[in-house]
TrEMBL record:
The lineage of its organism: Bacteria, Pseudomonadati, Bacteroidota, Sphingobacteriia, Sphingobacteriales. Pfam families: Mob_synth_C (PF06463), Radical_SAM (PF04055). This is GTP 3',8-cyclase. Residues 307-321 have a biased composition (Basic and acidic residues). The keyword Plastid does not apply. Its cofactor is [4Fe-4S] cluster. The keyword Nucleotide-binding applies.
Length: 329
């Protein structure tokens, strides 16, 4: 098993396959987008598969595909098919904005992909356009319908933003009444590509819970799964569940079991750290698997204690100048 210097077992890789996205969510990137990576700057699928296969042999059990938006990259299903063939990999899941996803759902299910996280910050088409700067609300809702129709495990991710979608918290929570979904509310983070000035957290996980409790006083805490990033709750009589992710407060760092591989091939042991290990350069210099395994083990063995320490150690500029699309959502 991969174990970091704080005794945490690392079993989960978040693999960002592209920095490109067909939405322009203001909390993630500027309206004009970011400086997109050229094709040669991205890890190739072959390079991704090599790294993933090696990490699985070292103890990674779950891989989540993220972006940007995964389905913006061509031949995504070919990569997923290859990942599904890695011996020892127990689970593949995906995070998507849902704009292009619907046609691929039957094939995703046939590959054994059981869980999809769908980004959806509002149930109002006008606010959706205001947040994403794109008129794709109907496409996302169609994807949600198709995921449920195919009995996929669905979690909806909503970033809670002061002055933007607070009125959506209760309607989104109410989706759990008749739908078997996990509705997850996420604290806003400062990774917006400098599109707007991040003024600090107005709605933390405690305030989000109290806001929901005003409408659902009977909401109660349920047991969190091992390594859960969310505090989980249930409203009696509802099919689904509520989760609140303290992404900025970083209260779950003590049990973090995940690492990230960015589209340009940086291995990050924490979302909040600066420059990670440039795996792409090592691969293209011809590093062997045994040596790469030692390098990966060494990096994971020098991991920050938590997101606050990682942020303090950053060598890059202020994190507000980064985009979640380039880090990997």
């Amino acid at each position: 098993m991969l174990t970091d210097n704080h005794g945490r077992k690392i079993t989960y890789l978040r693999l960002a396959v592209t920095d490109r996205c067909n939405l322009r969510c203001f909390y993630c990137m500027p309206e004009e987008g970011i400086n997109w990576l050229g094709r040669a700057e991205l890890l190739s699928y072959e390079e991704m598969l090599r790294v993933c296969s090696l990490l699985v042999s070292m103890g990674i059990e779950k891989i989540r595909i993220t972006g940007g938006e995964p389905f913006v990259r061509k031949d995504m299903m070919a990569l997923l098919n290859a990942l599904a063939g890695i011996d020892g990999l127990k689970e593949i899941s995906m995070t998507t904005n849902g704009v292009l996803t619907a046609p691929y759902i039957p094939e995703l299910k046939s590959l054994g992909i059981k869980s999809v996280n769908l980004s959806l910050d509002t149930l109002d088409a006008g606010r959706f356009f205001s947040i994403t700067r794109r008129d794709e609300f109907a496409a996302v809702m169609h994807t949600l319908d198709e995921l449920l129709k195919h009995d996929m495990e669905v979690k909806i991710n909503a970033v809670v933003m002061d002055g933007r979608n607070i009125e959506d918290i209760v309607p989104l929570a109410n989706l759990t009444k008749n739908l078997p979904i996990g509705m997850r509310f996420i604290e806003e983070m400062p990774f917006n590509g400098d599109s707007h000035i991040y003024k600090g957290l107005a709605w933390d996980h405690l305030r989000i819970l109290e806001h929901i409790r005003e409408s659902y006083p009977e909401i109660h805490k349920v047991k969190d799964a091992p390594y859960s990033t969310s505090y989980n709750y249930h409203i009696p009589g509802h099919q689904g569940s509520i989760g609140i992710i303290a992404a900025y407060s970083r209260t779950f760092c003590g049990t973090c079991n995940r690492i990230r591989l960015t589209p340009e091939g940086e291995l990050k042991t924490c979302l909040y750290e600066g420059d990670g290990l440039n795996v792409k350069n090592l691969l293209r210099r011809g590093i062997g698997d045994a040596e790469l395994q030692q390098v990966l083990t060494n990096v994971i063995g020098h991991r920050a204690k938590d997101g606050w320490e990682a942020e303090a150690e950053r060598k890059a500029s202020d994190p507000a100048h980064e985009s979640m699309a380039s880090i990997g959502g």
